[in-house]
Amino acid sequence: MIRSLLVPVVARYQTMSSQLEKEENEKSRSMMISVMSHSMAVVTGVSKAFNSLKDIKALGCFQMYYEVLQVFLTCLQVRKPRFSTKYGEFL
Fold first, then answer.
1. How far apart are CA 58 and CA 69, in angstroms?
2. Using one digit for the tens of pLDDT, what is the confidence trace for 3-21?
3. For 44-53, which contacts have Cβ atoms below 8 Å and span 24 or more sequence positions?
4. Contact by Cβ (8 Å): 28, 19
C-alpha cells in the first residue's frame, strides 16, 4: 500500500529533476524545485507513520525507502551549478 502511494511521488520527482537540468526560465526552475521539495516532504511524512526502523523492516518497507533515498541522493548531485545575481548568471 505504501509503495503505491510513494511510486508516483518519486516518479514525479525524477521527471522534475531531469527537466530541471534543461530548463532555462528561472521562474519555471523555481517551481520545479518547489515540487521536488514537496515530494521529499511527502515521502518523509509517510515514514512518520512507523514507530521505529524495526517496524519498517517488519512491514517490508525498508528496501523501498532505501531505493527512494538513492533516487533523492542521485538527483541532488550538482551537475552544472549556476549562480544568478542581479548582474547576470555565472557558470
1. 19
2. 888 899 999 999 988 888 8
3. 46/2, 46/5, 46/6
4. no
- Which residue, chain included where needed, has cell 502511494? 5
State how far the alpha carbon of 68 is from the alpha carbons of 4, 47, 56, 84, in Å. 13, 11, 14, 30
pLDDT tens digits, residue range 32-91?
A: 888 989 999 999 888 888 888 888 888 888 888 899 989 988 877 655 555 555 555 544
Strand partners, 89: 84
- The radius of gyration computed from the CA coordinates of the chain, to the nearest angstrom, equals 16
Our CA dihedral for 16, 22, 26, 31, rounded to 10 degrees, sits at: -10
- Check the CA dihedral 35-36-41-46 and report its sign: positive
